[in-house]
Amino acid sequence: MTESAAHRESPLLDRTAQLLTRITAEPGTRLSPVSPNGSRRHMTPPTLVAVAHGSRDPGALRTVTTLLERVRELRPGLEVRLGHIELNAPLLPDTLAGVDRGDVVLVPLLLGRGHHVKHDLPQAAATAPHLRTRVAAPLGPHPLLVETLYARLTEAGWRDADAADRGSGVVLAAAGSRDPESAADTRRTAALLSERLGGVPVLPAYASAASPTVPQALRALAARGRHRAAVASYFTAPGRFATQSAAAAPWLATAPLGAHAAMARLVLLRYDQALATRPAIPLRELATA
């Protein structure tokens, strides 16, 4: 990237600013279908079921709970529930069993396409045949995630002046998956973060199931003369992988994405997108799709 390009205002910033002002409580109030007599009747919006992975780290549940409190603040009147894929209660099938008949939108608090989104969510949802469901896209990649990553880097000590330091670099530490689409999503986020940082190299790395590992990515940066490397935690909440990745950092290590305001807005954006673009189908059909 040339010096002039690095100093131009990034289109990513424009898009993010527009999203931050557009994602408000208003969309949740528009579910008012027209009755046969021409009048509008109120209709309760589908339940938002946020799906977290689960972790033995007690900070994970606290973080996700705080995130969903922010979601409720942004969209009063929307029923928001939590279900976990494993390790924490309530598990997703138990959450769905507690929802009355109607429509739900599963919003995975996951950062890319992978086995959990493609298989675990539909299989868990199939345990509740009394519901119709939509499965929203995972949270990433998206500019709002990049803004959260940038905020966490700043909190950890990153300064804009570091972008001009040819010795600086960033490793984007993700969980990892054998699904190539998940890796593609992480690479896309790394590219967006590099753009947000003015061209600083950002290398994706993984805590499991894929390569490079965080130490390998740090060595790759060092081989390019980037010895002042930060590790950006690309995890929704605290957990073993996030702790392990941060421990490898030679310089700065960020906190997980957590309950940042942009994360809450992104959860609602994925919910709204699913309602607008994905038809509700019976869960037993979803499980075999």
Structure overview:
This protein has 289 residues and is an alpha/beta fold. Helices cover 43% and strands 15% of the residues. Strands 2-1-3-4-8 form a 5-stranded mixed beta sheet, with helices on both faces. A 3-stranded parallel beta sheet has the order 6-5-7, sandwiched between helices.
- Largest sheet, order of strands side by side? 2-1-3-4-8
Cα distance spanning the termini: 44 Å
Strand coverage percent: 5-15%
Helix and strand composition category: alpha/beta
Helix fraction bin? 40-55%
Unreliable residue stretches: 1-10, 28-36, 283-289
- Elements, N to C (H/E): HHEHEHEHEHEHEHEHHEH
Overall pLDDT, averaged? Answer: 85
Overall, the morphology is elongated
The tally of helices reads 11
Sheet with the most strands, sense and barrel status: 5 strands, mixed
Count of extended strands: 8
Task: Give a brief description.
The chain has 289 residues and is of the alpha/beta class.
Keywords:
289 residues, 3-stranded parallel beta sheet, 43% helix, disordered N terminus, disordered C terminus
Topology:
Elements (H helix, E strand, L loop, with lengths): L2 H5 L3 H12 L24 E6 L5 H17 L5 E5 L7 H6 L4 E7 L6 H11 L5 E5 L7 H14 L11 E7 L5 H17 L5 E5 L7 H10 L4 E6 L6 H8 L13 H17 L3 E2 H6 L1
Parallel strand pairs: 1-2, 1-3, 3-4, 5-6, 5-7
Antiparallel strand pairs: 4-8
Helix pairs in contact: 3-10, 6-7, 6-10
